[in-house]
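Researcher: Let's try something more involved. This one mixes different molecule types, so please make sure each is placed in the same coordinate frame as the others.
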Amino acid sequence: MQPAILTEKLTKAYGPRLGIDSLDLEVRPGEVLGFIGPNGAGKTTTIRVLLDLLHATSGRAFVMGRDVRRESVAVRRLVGYLPGEFGLDPRMTGRELVRYLARLRSLNELNYADEIAQRLGLDLDLPMGRLSRGNRQKIGLVQALYHRPPLLILDEPTTGLDPLVQDSFLQIVREARGEGRTVFLSSHFLSEVERVCDRVAIVRAGRLAAMETTESLLEKRRKRIMMIFSTPVDAALFAQLPGVSDVVPFGNSISLRLSDGIDGVVKLAAQHTLLDLSIEHPSLDEVFMSYYGQEQPWTP
Amino acid sequence: MDTLTPGLKTALRTIWVLTAHSLRSRYRSLIIWGVALGGLGALYVALYPAMSNLLQQYLEQAPENMQRFMGGVQGNITIQQWLEIEFLNVLVPVALPFLIVTLGARTIAGSEERKTLDLLLSNPFPRWQIIAGALATMGISLAAVLAMTWIFTYAAVPIAGVDLGPGVLASALAALWPFCLLFGALALLLSAFVRRNVFAITIPAVILVATYVINSLAQATESMRPLRFVSLLYYIGHPIQGDFPWIAVLAVLAGTLALFVLAMGAFAKRDVFT
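Model: All components are placed in one shared frame. Result:
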C-alpha cells in the first residue's frame, strides 16, 4: 500500500535560509501522525509544500502516490486542509462558506458539515465577522472535514479551542482514523499528540529529528519511581542497579529515575517492607526536550 | 455544453462558481457604482438644454487652448458633444477603472493579505482558474455598471427632450468596457506578481491618471500634442458620434488578453504565503 504522504529530500529555501532541509517523511495510510516541533522548525512549510502553496526548491513529495507539484489538483481532491492561519469573509456565514467550497468540489451534501458544527458547538448561520477566535477555528475545522477526505492535513488544529471542544475534535480525529482515513496533524500541544497520534515525527531546524510510534517514544522516557518503606533503606543499593539515576532518599522514602526495565528495582524493593510504590510517566514534552536538548526554545 | 470535454466542463463550472461568488459578494458596490454614474449621466442629459447655449457662448469667447481642451467643439453644441466633454471622456473612463482595479488587486494580493487565499487554493482546481474567474468577474461587473449607467442616462433623454439615440449612447459606453478592463487586467497581473495590494492598486491608478493628464495636456497645449498618442484615452475617439473605435477596442482587448496570460503564468509559478 502506497504511503499517504511521502517526501524525499524535500527542501524549501527562503533566500539563504532553509525552511525545510532534505526532509524525508513517510505517513502510512490510516494512521494519525503528529508532526511536532517549535516555531520555525519547518512544520508549516512542509504542509504548504504538500498543498502546492509553496514550491519545493528541491526534492519530491507525494500524496497517495501523486506528485504534489505535477498532480496538485488531484492531490487537493484527496485532502482536507486546515491552515495554521486563515482569514474569513466577515459578511459571509459559515454555511455560505462551506456551501461555496462544496460547489468548488462539485459537492451538494452538507450533512456532515452540520454534524461536525453541532458537535463542536458552532452556529453555521452567524456572519463570520461576529465569531470569536475559537469559533473561527471551528469554521476552519468544519471546512477541512465536511467532505470526508481520505487525508486530513491539520496545522495547529486546536488553537483557540476550549478544552471541551478540543476533546470533541480529538474524538472526530479518532473517528476519522476508525474510518481508515489518514490524519497529518501539526501541533504545538504535545498533550493532544500524545492522546490521539499513532506515531510522532519530530522536526528540528527543517530536518526530521525522530519518527517513532507515540508508544515507543513514551517508552523511552525515564520514569520517576517513588517508594515508601516501613523503615529507612540504603539508597546506594538502588543506585547500583542498571538504568537507575537521580536516586534521592528522604526519610523512609526513595525517589529515583529509571530508563530500563523495572524488574530489578521491584525485586530489590521487595526485600524490604514496601508500603507504597508509584510510577510517574513524564509527558511527551519531556521526551521532546530530550530530542531538542536546551538548544531551542519550546513553546507549549 | 455537450460537445465540451469533461475537463473543460469542469474548468468552466469552477470558473463560474468563482465568478458567481465574487459577483454575489460585490453586487451592492456594483449597484452603487451603476446608480452613481447613471445618475451623473442623467444629470448631464438633464442639464443639456439649459447649458448648451451658455457653453457655446463661453467657448466662442474662450482662448484657443481652452477650446481645444474642451474637445475642439465649435458652433452648436450637440448632446453628443456635451456628454463627451466631461461625462464620457473624463468621468466614466477615469472613475470606473478604479472599481475594476480594486477588483483585480483583491483577487490575489488582497486575498493573500487577508489570508483568505489558502482556504480557496486548498480546493481541487488549478490556479489559472482563479485568474479566469477574476477576469470574468471584472468583465461582468463592468458590463453591469455600464448597463446601469446607460439605463439611467437614457432615462433622462425623453424627460429633457433631447435628440439622443439609445444605440449611440450604448456604443459610447461599450467602447469604454475594454479600456477599463485593461486596467483591471494590469492590476490582476501586478496582484499575481507583487504580493502587496497597495502596489497592485497604486501602479494602475497612477498610469490611469497619467493617461488622463497627458491626454488633457495634449489637447490644450500645441507643444504637447505629439504626446497624445501615448494616452489610451486618445484612442477611444468619438463613439457617441457614430465613430466606434474598432481597431483600438481590438488592440486593447488583445493587450488585456496578454496581461491575463502573463498573470496566469506569474500566479502559477509563485509561492503563496500567509
